[in-house]
Amino acid sequence: MSPKDAEKWNAIYRAGKHDQAEAAKVLREHNHLLPQTGKALDLACGRGANALFLAHHGLETSAWDVSDQAIALLEQSARELRLRLDTEVRDVIERPPKQDSFDVIVVSHFLERAIFPALCLALRTGGLLYYQTFIREQVSATGPSNPAYRLTENELLSLCMPLHIVYYREEGRIGNTAKGFRDQAMLIGQRR
Fold first, then answer.
1. Which residues contact residue 82 at a Cβ distance below 8 angstroms, ignoring those fewer than 6 apart?
2. What are phi and psi of 127, to 5 degrees?
3. CA atoms of 73 and 58, how far apart (whole Å)
4. In this model, does residue 6 exceed pLDDT 80?
5. 55-104 confidence digits (pLDDT tens)
6. Contact 130, 119 (CB under 8 A)
7. In the chain, is it the N or the C terminus that has fewer CB atoms within a 10 Å radius of its CB?
8. Residue 126, class by beta-carbon neighbours within 10 Å (0-12 exposed, 13-18 middle, 19+ buried)?
9. By C-alpha distance, which of 192, 191, 188 is closest to 31?
10. What is the CA radius of gyration of the chain?
């Protein structure tokens, strides 16, 4: 990411325009798969709802984002909730996680295709990747307008091919689009 990206996101967080108060649906609905102990990472964490969720569930949690404003807001939330987090202002594209370093990695509403091989390898054996982001086959105006930041049909499955797929959901425009899980895909993969 460029310094311009960090500046853009800092401005967004300063203006209060990006407030994710809740952890990703894929994590909330499948938290029963989380290990009882271990190291977790909320990558491109933003305000850190996923990191707070992971720390609350007893995992040793790291949270990385390019925005120092987002990290400052997350640190404040963690203090208020008395949760321990290891936060870092970090360009996750330039410096993805190291191999065999996490038992759980969560990514939501962030897409950089080039780092998927590093994400899969950053999981320890038995580790889980929880991923949820926007798709091109949208039914509403939610999410980024640039199609480069949206997944094509079944692309998330392809990007996570080295992993054992535990769970996948992508409904697109099938059936009654007023119901169901729309505009996004979610996946849980395990490194074996």
1. none
2. -70, 155
3. 21
4. no
5. 999 999 999 999 999 999 999 999 999 999 999 999 999 999 999 999 99
6. no
7. C
8. exposed
9. 188
10. 16
> Encoding tokens for residue 150?
């949206």
Cβ proximity of 163 and 191 under 8 Å = yes
190: which strand partners? 128, 164
Per-residue model confidence as pLDDT tens digits over 103-155: 999 999 999 999 999 999 999 999 999 999 999 999 999 999 999 999 999 99
pLDDT of residue 21: 75
Are the beta carbons of 41 and 48 closer than 8 angstroms?
no
The size of the chain, in residues, is 192
Question: How crowded is the C-beta side of 108, counted as CA atoms within 13 Å?
Answer: 21
Q: Which helix (H) or strand (E) holds 40?
A: strand 39-43
Take residue 71 and report the two structure tokens written for it: 């990290």
